[in-house]
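User: Sequence recovery, please. Input:
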């Protein structure tokens, strides 16, 4: 199912509920307001720290992002890994410009969804920002017949210096089913086709860093739901997530913290150009 259709259907589903008043805090009301906030983001500055499970190990990351949503442009700076990435299709085509500040110090242009940029990563730079969270929730509900009923509001909680609404999703019926690979299918195309989590599908079938076509006729184990459990902390003023953690049948497989969030502050003309004096390209 097309992700845009899923999101549109989910948004209409939320609108079909009536909200009885400001004191009536319900998961669908919070999610509805979160969707409004995500939809209204035009520019985003944020630091994201992440923990991702990869082949039974947890990989830590910390990056600072600048994101323009339309037309989509991205600047990423990971000071710990000493790497900068610039994605601006208007000026530089469909590839991302990547500058490692370690040997061999050579600036290269890479496919954002290719094997080099995706290696040991759960997501590509195409998922940078808040859109992927909205997509993940929409996909979760599209695969879960009980949908919104499996979300629980657990009250307010402090997270990263923010007063937040704490939501939890859990479906104990999470399981796997067999899928026979067809012609010219990849792990990512299957995840999109079946509305399941890309990483879980890869991890379950030993395909974590396999980005090519899969052998036709191969039997894969595919999750029946997008995830087994999710925990979201949503800032009560911004109505945007400041923390999200996803779990499968093994346990935590990814967690992200959003810090120093600045939305809809205009960018300078050179914020997405190689010759920005503050960049190292």
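Assistant: Recovered sequence (281 residues):
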């Amino acid at each position: 199912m097309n992700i845009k259709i899923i999101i549109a259907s989910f948004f209409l589903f939320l609108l079909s509920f009536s909200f009885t008043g400001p004191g009536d805090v319900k998961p669908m009301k919070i999610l509805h307001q979160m969707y409004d906030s995500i939809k209204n983001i035009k520019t985003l500055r944020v630091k994201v720290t992440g923990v991702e499970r990869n082949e039974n190990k947890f990989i830590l990351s910390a990056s600072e992002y600048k994101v323009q949503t339309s037309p989509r442009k991205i600047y990423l700076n990971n000071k710990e890994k000493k790497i900068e990435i610039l994605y601006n299709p208007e000026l530089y085509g469909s590839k991302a410009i990547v500058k490692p500040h370690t040997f061999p110090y050579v600036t290269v242009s890479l496919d954002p969804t290719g094997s080099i940029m995706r290696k040991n990563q759960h997501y590509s730079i195409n998922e940078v920002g808040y859109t992927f969270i909205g997509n993940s929730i929409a996909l979760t509900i599209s695969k879960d017949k009980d949908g919104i009923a499996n979300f629980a509001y657990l009250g307010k909680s402090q997270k990263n210096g923010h007063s937040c609404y704490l939501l939890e999703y859990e479906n104990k019926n999470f399981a796997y089913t067999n899928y026979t690979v067809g012609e010219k299918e990849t792990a990512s195309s299957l995840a999109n086709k079946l509305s399941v989590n890309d990483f879980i599908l890869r991890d379950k079938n030993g395909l974590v860093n396999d980005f090519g076509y899969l052998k036709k006729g191969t039997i894969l184990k595919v999750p029946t739901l997008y995830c087994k459990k999710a925990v979201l902390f949503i800032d009560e003023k911004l109505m945007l997530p400041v923390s999200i953690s996803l779990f499968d049948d093994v346990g935590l497989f990814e967690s992200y913290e959003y810090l120093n969030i600045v939305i809809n502050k205009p960018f300078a003309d050179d914020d997405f150009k190689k010759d920005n004096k503050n960049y190292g390209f």
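The helical segments are 3-15, 27-39, 89-92, 115-118, 131-143, 187-194, 198-204.
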